[in-house]
């Protein structure tokens, strides 16, 4: 099938999507609206140029899987956390990316274009591209009024309202910083009682460490070491849950509780059609997690008859990469 | 100034707006985008036709103040609580209007057209027309992303997003039923810990009565009787607050607290430009109330630099009537 004519035909159709996270960088090669290949590398901590080079590596892996080369790529879209000026191609305030955490905008799109050997790269906020991926190609396809919730290290959100990505006047979609329990558990931003305080993997880990130090029994840290990790990854939480660890169960129960409150409040305000739940923890805990959130949310809805459809993300941790490709026409 | 030529010129410009509430019906006559006259009658409890007749009375009062007659009216818009089908001209599920509280849609627009002697009446949900009034003619004029919060007997909300009224897929804007304290005080819908549980005048009255029965000292009920009321109206709360009543202060403090939490959560999600606060209690407590909510909200914002502008409504309890007129071109 890899004859020259076929490759030429495919070539004009290839777009690449990149999703840059604090831990890993994912890439997807999209041909005719389908994922033809994907790649993943760990995020280096050598600054923005090193990140751009690593992203190019992930892209090469995705292209290899798709059986095409860089020359075949029409455009590259990229999702990156932080304050992104898409038109200027700059990013700032990205706390988990060394060298990009400051307030000074860094011309990351240009660095990425260089690293990709001249392929024009466009950047956008990572949460915005993730909802775009699920809306245009995944679970959110049938809907005009849609919330995407990314339950990962933090908790992010993206909104499609009246069939358009909603941007507001600033960083909209910060559902992780909605207040679910005034005066409650501390969040990553130092404020209290946020959704992310209870449902963000990062804050769940902080709580687990505190409780373990106080003598709470748990196999979470043992599992972490067995897996060769230094963090309580989503996989560690999932394994501990399967093995009946009480602390893991308690923390996931609290995440379900916090999500049900925040999502019910959003639904009562916005009367959405659907809510897609993704992110590392959302994907890893999967369908049973989403069903539990749905069940907990129902009694809190003002109009139970107009409950939103709750769905798992289609692309899992590739939502961002797929959406980034969609952004540039993939 | 009331010469025939002048009246004729004005005639083609007159639209009427009606706001039907559980307690009172308000009407405004709008000429060239300005309120030329207003009228108010108490809401009768004799069923939908009696309500339509009373609305016509309020309209006549507004027209008299504007110096015009029914023949001069181009169109009449009406805001009414409940599930409104604007195109069908029907209303259902309006709990505070006797005869309209059922699930059966009542052809109220036609009844109103009859009562107005043939002037075409269009109906819409009351909260939706109120935000329309403030957005098109009042405090919300400069903004494209705007929340209106109506702090009255209940707490309602209306959203303008990207320069359009936001409707969602059902009854959007139910900000009063956002959860500010899980498991907290009971709300009008029987659920717990809603914004309305703390900031709705109706629920504040329920709490005041409970605490008074338990022996809490307060002048609220004395003031109510002096004013010849059977309910703790917004005016009663305002007077008690002025006189330093501790219970009134406590209840208003809680309303401020609950509003600050809900509004911060909405802001963190939607990145709005402005929030307009109206409704009976919002208008009566006025600027100091809005400033207190603003102050309490600031520390809860995820992006304090992008704080929304908090404003009092321009038209006070006429917002709904003005918006209803705007709906039909006024």
Secondary structure topology:
2 copies of one chain form a homodimer.
Chain A: H1 4-11, E1 14-20, E2 24-31, E3 34-42, H2 48-66, E4 75-80, E5 83-85, E6 90-92, H3 108-115, E7 121-125, H4 126-137, E8 146-151, E9 155-161, E10 164-165, H5 195-199, H6 201-213, H7 220-226, H8 234-242, H9 246-270, E11 274-278, H10 279-297, E12 309-312, H11 319-327
Parallel strand pairs in A: 1-4, 4-7, 8-11, 11-12
Antiparallel strand pairs in A: 1-2, 2-3, 5-6, 8-9, 9-10
Structure explained in plain terms:
Two copies of one chain form a homodimer. The first copy, chain A, is α/β, with parallel strands linked by helices and 330 residues long. Chain A folds into two domains: 137 residues, ATPase, nucleotide binding domain (Nucleotidyltransferase, domain 5), CATH 3.30.420; 173 residues, Nucleotidyltransferase, domain 5, CATH 3.30.420.40. In chain A, 41% of the residues lie in helices and 20% in strands. In chain A, the strands form three sheets. A five-stranded mixed beta sheet of chain A has the order 3-2-1-4-7, with helices on both faces. A five-stranded mixed beta sheet of chain A has the order 10-9-8-11-12. A two-stranded antiparallel sheet of chain A has the order 5-6. In chain A, β1 and β2 form a beta hairpin. Chain A starts with a helix and ends with a helix. In chain A, 56% of the residues are buried. The model of chain A has no long low-confidence stretch (mean pLDDT 93). The interface between A and B is large, with 41 and 41 residues.
